[in-house]
Specification:
heterotrimer; A: about 100 residues; mainly alpha; Helix Hairpins; 3 helices; about 80% helix; elongated; C: about 260 residues; Four Helix Bundle (Hemerythrin (Met), subunit A); 3 domains; 9 helices; about 60% helix; about 0% strand
């Protein structure tokens, strides 16, 4: 087996996450899709670290995690606020920017 | 060297400060503003007098000086200073402007006393004096141009001073627009100077005029002539002067008779060395002067409006000056001399006309005057003296200046002396006729108006119409005093200045020494002929307007007279030759702009708008659609990079 | 790559892909969260296998332990009751999404497949001082500034969370009297003054999902909690009544024939 398989797995997970973002309407699930995409990139980073024998890849993955944590806090707070205001967690209901 | 050279800037600054104060302080200065205006003008005259006395005290060759206050424009090769040229020519103008100007300020205090905007009037008058002094004191064409535009502005403001009356506003606009045509000439001339001589100051341009190509100097000369025509109401830009009489009479006296309209003559005389390098331009100047001389004289014969008749006379007299200026150094001194004497007697005549209007309830129709001499004795006498002066009757001042011009017009070779001389001679005869007509219609003959005491209206309704009721009375001393002073000038100025060719020698530092040439006719013959024609003209007018009854409506007349009554169709010519083609041109341009240019761009804009309308449907507001677009775009970018980097091709 | 790792990978990878695909199809957000948790734990295992034990632990602690719990909290807050309907409301969005997802997968897989990779070096040398120490050395030396900045970011995000979810009271806090008066004022609109009726109580089953009966024997719909009603988990009153009738019949059958007692048993 080759390390490339990890990259294939990362690609598939990333594409699935992106598709989730496109297809699901529940804002929380959409957000989970985003998290999935971030995790997929982390997997790729860890794999590259191993491939090149350079631990910096893992450091980058670490940073991604931290930033993702911050993003989750703010993102979920926004979702909660929107839900309070509009009684809905659907991303399709937040279309006031149209026209 | 003159001690008082550094006073020159104050000549401009004093009236300018007066104008600024009057305009800025506003209504608060309504009560004393007119006296401030008089004070500023008089103070300027005093400063001018100090400089003049200083100048008289030094030798002739030291009388030319330039006082540079500051550097004005300093961009690489172009250096223009804020400099003041003080020499006999400019000082002549300074004295004329400030002296006559102060008198007219004084006159206006009384003349405008019932006008609620008297303060604003004086502010404009001061502004005019400042601009006119800047014009004559400038040491470069560019600075002269500032004054040139300044007097144009003041003229515009004062012609339309009573702008609540539409024709006055229109007259102001007309003067302004026609002056702009002339200004184009001055601007173009300055451009040519800059290209040819590398500067616009008098020293550079006039000093190296000999070395320049004759074609260039001719072009500059003709452009300067265009400028002079605009400002001095010469053919073909003469049409505005008659309408300019819409302004208050003191304005007509100061700006449109004595000073501003003579600025063109000043410009040409100042540019003398340049014009001598362009003989063709000189010839054109003389021709223009001769034509305007006749034009104004003919129009003056037919006008019944006392101010318009005087305006036509002004035009004609400036024609004399232009003719003299076109004859070269031999004529410069006499052009300025006539300008000076004309400034006195014409201002006096205008002030007299104002006094008559004051007496006749602002009526200007001479056919409704008559027999006023006994009721307005001071006005009649002062105007009479001015009348004799403009006629050129010895020893009044007009005789010395105008007769010299006629003599000079007869100097030369070939056809020119005969043509110019004859025109000048005939012009003198016509001048005598129309000025006598004006004088007799106003002061002599029978009254063509009525008083209530004398039986009421209709007493002299010769043509069946009612004579208007008037209460003529002599003007207050504030008005008669300036008239008397100007009348004294009209009488004595010529004789005093001409004694021993004093004035000619006075101007020599500027105009250069002119060799004496003999006219083609003997001088005694010319003088005799002139006087005979003048007497004939005056006699004819006397018979027609003092002895015979004057019809109160214009009688049927031959074609020439009818044409002269409407200014020889000058407005029709302008409208036909300039306005109509211009209007057609602009209309067609607007049409082309709408149909071709606008339609194209509007079509393009409409297309973009419709495209935008289509694309707008993409802005659904659904964040998922936006995410899909982002992702699609990302895919496209990755694909392109992949293909371009050659990976896809392998 | 050792054989053991190969087995691990081929066991975990398909499961993870299935779980990730589950994100697309499950109707309940809670189920989606469970799918994501599974993928994340799988990833943690793979990290450990890939010589990144520290990241593996952090993955479990931060993602599975903190982030996903936060997700679940918010789900509770927002309402677990709302099951997503999977019918698409934007025309064509489903096909566009699927197409783009597939295209993205194709592009990414294609890129990975096209790329040539150097022979694997492995992290044995880098991890000689143990993975956390090696990581710390890079982090605290080369990336110390980024590290501090990220710390600031986290603090900012925490504050942002506070500020965003903070509710500002717009008016005065209503007193109990005011609330009571408001309720009474709403009486004509059909508002009930008294507390809602409790759900029906039956010894037979979990009584929360069955409606109470009014004195006339009709079921009271609003006696069942709202969440259960929305989820469709309430038991219909007729069903209950039939069950009750059978019970009554059975009891009545039992009573006249005590001898047959035990037949049903």
């Amino acid at each position: 087996m080759d390390l490339v398989n990890y990259l294939y797995l990362a690609s598939i997970l990333f594409a699935l996450g992106a598709t989730t973002v496109l297809l699901r309407r529940n804002a929380i699930v959409v957000f989970m899709g985003v998290e999935l995409m971030l995790n997929a990139t982390n997997l790729a980073l860890v794999t590259f670290a191993r491939l090149h024998g350079d631990i910096t890849g893992q450091v980058l993955a670490f940073f991604v995690m931290v930033v993702a944590a911050a993003e989750v806090v703010v993102g979920l707070a926004i979702i909660v606020t929107i839900f309070r205001a509009r009684r809905s967690a659907s991303v399709d209901d937040v279309n006031l920017l149209k026209s | 060297m003159m001690q008082t050279l550094s006073l020159a800037p104050w000549l401009v600054a004093t009236p300018l400060v007066g104008a600024a104060l009057l305009l800025l302080v506003g209504r608060l200065s309504d009560r004393w503003g007119h006296w401030l205006g008089v004070l500023a003008s008089t103070a300027t005259f005093v400063i001018g007098l100090v400089i003049l006395l200083d100048m008289l005290g030094v030798a002739a060759e030291d009388r030319v000086g330039v006082h540079t206050t500051a550097s004005w424009i300093d961009v690489g090769p172009l250096q223009v200073d804020l400099g003041f040229q003080v020499d006999p020519l400019s000082m002549t103008f300074v004295m004329l402007i400030t002296f006559v100007g102060s008198l007219i300020h004084l006159y206006s205090v009384a003349y405008m006393s019932h006008d609620r905007d008297r303060r604003r009037f004086f502010a404009y008058l001061n502004l005019f004096v400042a601009a006119m002094l800047l014009l004559v004191l400038a040491d470069s064409y560019l600075l002269l141009f500032v004054g040139w535009e300044g007097v144009g502005l003041a003229s515009f403001l004062l012609i339309g001073f009573w702008d609540h009356h539409l024709p006055n506003a229109v007259a102001g606009k007309k003067a302004f627009v026609m002056n702009r045509v002339g200004d184009m000439g001055l601007i173009a001339a300055m451009m040519l100077m800059l290209a040819t001589f590398g500067g616009v100051d008098f020293a550079t341009v006039l000093g190296s005029a000999d070395a320049a190509d004759q074609g260039t100097t001719t072009a500059i000369g003709l452009l300067l002539l265009l400028a002079a025509c605009g400002k001095s109401a010469q053919l073909p830009l003469q049409a505005w002067l008659g309408d300019a009489m819409a302004g208050p009479t003191p304005v007509s006296a100061l700006i449109h008779a004595a000073t501003m309209v003579t600025a063109g003559v000043y410009l040409l005389v100042r540019s003398g060395p340049l014009l001598e390098a362009a003989p063709d331009a000189q010839l054109v100047i003389a021709v223009v002067g001769a034509l305007t001389l006749l034009f104004g004289a003919i129009v003056g014969c037919a006008k019944d409006d006392i101010k318009k008749a005087l305006a036509a006379s002004t035009m004609s007299q400036i024609g004399y000056m232009m003719l003299a200026a076109g004859l070269g150094p031999v004529g410069y001194a006499f052009a300025i001399f006539h300008l000076l004497t004309h400034g006195f007697f014409k201002a006096g005549l205008f002030l007299g006309a104002g006094s008559v209007m004051h007496a006749m309830d602002d009526d200007v129709n001479m056919r409704r005057f008559g027999g006023l001499a006994r009721l307005l004795p001071v006005t009649a006498i002062t105007m009479g003296l001015g009348w004799l002066a403009i006629l050129g009757v010895p020893p009044f001042s007009g005789f010395y200046s105008k007769d010299k011009i006629i003599e000079v017009a007869f100097v030369g070779e070939g056809w020119r002396p005969w043509v110019f001389g004859t025109v000048a001679l005939v012009g003198a005869g016509i001048t005598a006729y129309y000025m006598s007509r004006l004088f007799f219609m106003t002061f002599m003959g029978r009254r063509r108006w009525a008083t209530e005491l004398a039986g009421g209206a209709g007493r002299d309704g010769a043509d069946g119409d009612e004579a208007p009721v008037r209460h003529p009375h002599e003007s207050p001393w504030l008005m008669t005093l300036p008239m008397i002073v100007l009348a004294i000038g009209s009488v004595g100025l010529g004789f005093v200045l001409n004694a021993g060719d004093r004035f000619v020698h006075w101007l020599e530092p500027v105009t250069g020494h002119a060799e004496h040439h003999e006219p083609v006719l003997p001088i005694w013959l010319i003088v005799t002929l002139t006087l005979v024609l003048v007497v004939l003209g005056a006699a004819l007018a006397f018979v027609q307007y003092a002895v015979r009854r004057v019809p109160t409506t214009p009688p049927p007349a031959p074609a020439l007279v009818r044409a002269a009554r409407v200014d020889l169709h000058q407005d029709d010519v302008n409208e036909g030759l300039v306005m109509l083609p211009g209007r057609v041109l602009t209309r067609s341009l607007v049409f082309a702009d709408r149909t071709a240019v606008d339609a194209g761009w509007l079509g393009l804009a409409g297309g973009v708008g419709r495209l935008g309308g289509r694309l707008r449907s993409m802005q659904s507001g659904y964040v998922r659609q936006y995410a899909a677009m982002t992702l699609g775009g990302l895919g496209v970018i990755v694909l392109v990079i992949w293909l371009v980097s050659g990976q896809g091709a392998s | 790559m050792s054989g053991g790792e190969e087995v691990l990978f081929w066991t975990l990878a398909p499961l993870m892909v299935i779980a990730a695909a589950g994100l697309l199809v499950v109707r309940r957000a809670v189920h989606a969260a469970v799918c994501v948790v599974f993928v994340m734990i799988g990833l943690a295992v793979l990290y450990v296998a890939q010589e990144a034990p520290f990241l593996g632990i952090v993955q479990v602690v931060v993602y599975t332990g903190a982030v996903m719990m936060l997700f679940l909290f918010v789900l509770m807050l927002v309402g677990v009751d709302a099951a997503d309907s999977l019918t698409e409301t934007i025309r064509g969005q489903r096909w566009i999404g699927l197409l783009l997802g597939a295209g993205l997968a194709a592009v990414l897989l294609g890129v990975v497949a096209q790329a040539t990779f150097p022979p694997s070096v492995g992290l044995a040398q880098a991890n000689a001082v143990t993975n956390p120490v090696a990581l710390a050395r890079v982090l605290m030396q080369d990336y110390v500034v980024a590290m501090e900045v990220v710390g600031i970011l986290l603090v900012t995000a925490a504050l942002a969370g506070l500020v965003l979810t903070h509710r500002r009271r717009l008016g005065k806090k209503p007193t109990q009297r005011a609330l009571a008066e408001a309720k009474v004022a709403l009486l004509p609109t059909g508002r009930q003054l008294t507390p809602l009726p409790a759900p029906g109580v039956y010894a037979q089953n979990n009584a929360m999902d069955t409606p109470a009966l009014d004195p006339e024997g009709r079921p009271l719909e609003h006696s069942v909690p709202r969440v259960l009603r929305i989820r469709g988990q309430q038991r219909s009153a007729t069903e209950l009544l039939t069950a009750e009738e059978t019970l009554v019949q059975r009891i009545q059958l039992d009573r006249p024939a005590p001898a047959e007692n035990g037949e049903d048993r």
